Amino acid sequence: MGLLLAFFFVSIFFSFLCSILEAVLLSITPAYVGIQEQKGGHLAKDLVRFKDDIDRPLAAILTLNTIAHTVGAIGVGSQAAVLFDGANIELFGVSLISWEAIIAGLMTLAILIFSEIIPKTIGANNWETLTPFSISALKVMLFALAPLVWVSQYITRHLSRDKSKPVLSRTDFIAMTRLGTESGALEEKEQTIIHNLLRFSRVLVKNVMTPRIVVIAASDTMTIREFHELNADLPFSRIPIYHEQNDNVTGYILKDELLLKLVEDQGDRTLNEIRRDIIVVHKTLPIPELLDNFISRKEHLALVVDEFGAMEGIVTMEDIIETLLGLEIVDESDSEEDMQALAKKNWERRAKRLGIITPEEDKPPFKPGPGEDHDI
C-alpha cells in the first residue's frame, strides 16, 4: 500500500507543479516583461528569453507532465494489481466492480482536480507572485530534460506557424479596447482614441477635409484695411486667399500679421503682399503622411486638389486632431459625397458653437483655416 501511495502522490505533485508553471508562463504579459526589463536583473533576461522562445519551456513542462502521468498510472496500476490480485467488490454474492477499476477511476479524478483544475486556477490568478519561482523551476527543468526538450522542439519547429506574422491583428486590439471599456479598465473616450488611432492609417485626406463648397477665402487684391473692416470679429487666425477666382487659392494669411500691419499703418497693402505659401496635397493622401508633412514644414493648413489639380477643399491640423480625439472615422467604403456631407455638417456644428452662423442659416458665410483663437 505504501508504494501505491508513493506513486500516486509523486505523480500528482509533479503534475500539479507542471500545471502551475504552464498557467504562470502563459499568463505573463508583455507589459510585465517590459517593466522587469527596465528594472534589470536576471529575472528580466530569463523572462525575455522564455517569452521569445516559449516553445522551450512549454516542451519541458509537457514532457515532465506526461512522464508524471504515465509513470504514476503504471505504478499505481501495478501496485493495485499486486495488492488486490483481481479481487472484486461483491453485493449479495454478485461481483460488481474490481478494486483495480475503482483505483483507476480515483486516480483519474485526482489528476483532473489536483493536477489540472486547482493548480491552473492558482497559477492564472497569482501569476505575478509566482513568476520568480516559476522561472527558477523552469531553468532546472530545462537543464534536466534537455535531450527530450530538443527532440520536442525539433518536431514542433516544423509544425508551428510562421513567427514573423503578428499574433494580434488590428481587429483584435479594437475588440480588446471594447472589452476594456465594458470592464471599466478604459474610459469611453480612451476607447475612442485607441479605436481611431488603429484605423488612422486607412483614412485619406478626402475623408476629413472641408469641401470646396463651404470654403470661402479672401481675394488677394483686397487691402488689409478693407479685409479688416469686413471681418473685424474674425475669430480665426489663418485665412485662405485666392487670385481672380475662388477656386484659385494661392496661399493664406495670418490674422496676427494682418493686425500687426494695421498697427504699423500699412493697411493699404494688399493681402497678396503678406501671403504665405500653402501646402498642396492630393485628396487620396493618407492622413499620417499629411500629419508628417504638417510637422516637418511647421504648417497647419493645406489645399486639397484632385487628379486634375482642381481645388477639392482644405484640410487643417485640427481636422487630423479631431479625427484622433473625437470625430467618428467613417469607413473607406462610404462614398465621397457622404464624406463631403459629413465635413459640411461638422463645420456647421462648430460654426454654430462659435456663433458664426445661426441655426436658421443654411450656409456658412466663410470657412477660413484653423485659428489660434478658435479653430474650425
SSE blueprint and pairings:
Blueprint: H1 2-27, H2 30-39, H3 42-52, H4 55-84, E1 88-91, E2 94-98, H5 99-125, H6 127-144, H7 146-157, H8 170-183, H9 188-198, H10 205-208, E3 210-211, E4 218-219, H11 224-230, E5 238-242, E6 249-254, H12 255-263, E7 279-282, H13 287-297, E8 301-305, E9 311-316, H14 317-325, H15 336-354
Parallel strand pairs: 4-5, 7-8
Antiparallel strand pairs: 1-2, 3-9, 5-6, 8-9
Helix pairs in contact: 1-4, 1-5, 1-6, 2-3, 4-5, 4-6, 4-7, 8-9
Content-based structural category = alpha/beta
Widest beta sheet: strand line-up:
3-9-8-7
Separate helix tally: 15
Tell me the strand percentage band: 5-15%
On the 0-100 scale, what is the average pLDDT? 79
Helix content: 55-70%
Topology, number of strands? 9
Low-confidence stretches: 328-339, 361-376
Subunit organisation of the chains: single chain
**What order do the SSEs take from the amino end to the carboxyl end, as H and E?**
HHHHEEHHHHHHEEHEEHEHEEHH
Give the CA-CA distance, first to last residue: 85 Å
Biggest sheet character:
4 strands, mixed
Question: Could you walk me through the main structural features you see in this protein, from its secondary elements to its overall organization?
Answer:
A hairpin with a 5-residue loop joins strand 8 (301-305) and strand 9 (311-316). The protein has a four-stranded mixed β-sheet. A three-stranded mixed β-sheet has the order 4-5-6. A two-stranded antiparallel sheet has the order 1-2. It is α/β, with parallel strands linked by helices. The model is unreliable at 328-339 and 361-376 (pLDDT under 50). The protein is 58% helix and 10% strand. The N and C termini lie far apart (85 Å).
